[in-house]
């Protein structure tokens, strides 16, 4: 009778093993702001909700998946005191690292800003003098993300954004902490039923599809906020609110005011006067800071002076099952 040598059992693979191939070494860079800068507050406003598949923060690192002019890139930022360490993967990695200082607020110049015109703004600016407005320089994707947020709650807009990018976007390269996706290359090829499944209303999806057919001309006009504003507001379905949101995200426009926002005028009025105002009243209150009105709005958001909630949150209807 013969015996067989028993082979040792094969080690079980951990359930969390990443099935992707190991990522190549990233391009790496460091950015040291010339002036004290709260880099986190410059970058985080680009995130569209807590579950945005194109930007997230994990264990102290901000991850971004973008479609740059040179291709898709993943950018990882570790923010330290006076230093930002960056790594980038993908075809657009070099572009993403070159654009990094602007994303972190390097082009934002507060010269001429006079916070002393109101005690709340003066006090908040004293506590947050390192506030800078970041920019992505990606006009078209900033425009499309703003269209998602037209006339709906943030919950609806962010949910639709998450679904469309996950279903139709391009998987981000690199060792992202969870699957991430850059915006689609061909928004106009997304079928109507996909928009419907994501919960985006027909007026918004039509606006996105029509804008996508003119993407090249929109991006050619993106030399500065003024020319980009003229280009996008000539499109059907895009007005002052959407253009302002686009300029804030793409250019870090320090003077943009999102007129027509459901909450903004109330927030500005309450913070500066203790009572609600309409859009005209908001513009009148912000006029002394013309040139820096978006900076004032950001400072109001940081001030902690928020109007008490008067009722339950709006519960939007879901028409996808009809």
Cα-atom radius of gyration: 22 Å
Strand content is: 5-15%
Q: From the coordinates shown, what is the CATH architecture?
A: Orthogonal Bundle
CATH superfamily: Hypothetical protein, domain 2
Uncertain residue segments = 1-16
Topology pattern, helix = H, strand = E: EHEEEEHHHHEEHHHHHHHH
Distance between the termini: 72 Å
Derived structural class: alpha+beta
Quaternary structure state of the chains depicted: single chain
The largest β sheet comes out as:
5 strands, antiparallel
Question: How many domains would you count in the coordinates?
Answer: 1
Helix content: 25-40%
Q: What number is the mean pLDDT?
A: 91
Q: Tell me, what's the shape?
A: globular
Organism: Microbacterium laevaniformans
InterPro entries: Alkylbase_DNA_Glycosylase/TA, DNA_glycosylase
GO molecular function: alkylated DNA binding; DNA-3-methyladenine glycosylase activity; DNA-7-methylguanine glycosylase activity
Protein name: DNA-3-methyladenine glycosylase 2 family protein
Explain the overall architecture:
- 40% of the residues are buried.
- The protein has one domain (27-303): Endonuclease III, domain 1 (Orthogonal Bundle).
- The termini are far apart.
- The strands form two sheets. The protein has a five-stranded antiparallel beta sheet with strand order 1-5-4-3-2.
- The model is unreliable at 1-16 (pLDDT under 50).
- The chain is globular and about 55 Å long.
- Helix 4 (139-148) packs antiparallel against helix 7 and helix 9 packs antiparallel against helix 10.
- The protein is built from 13 helices and seven strands.
- With 322 residues, the protein is α+β, with helices and mostly antiparallel strands.
- A hairpin with a 2-residue loop joins strand 3 and strand 4.
- The longest helix is centred in the middle third of the chain and has 15 residues, at 154-168.
- One of its GO terms (cellular component) is protein-DNA complex.
- Residues 1-56 are annotated as: Disordered.
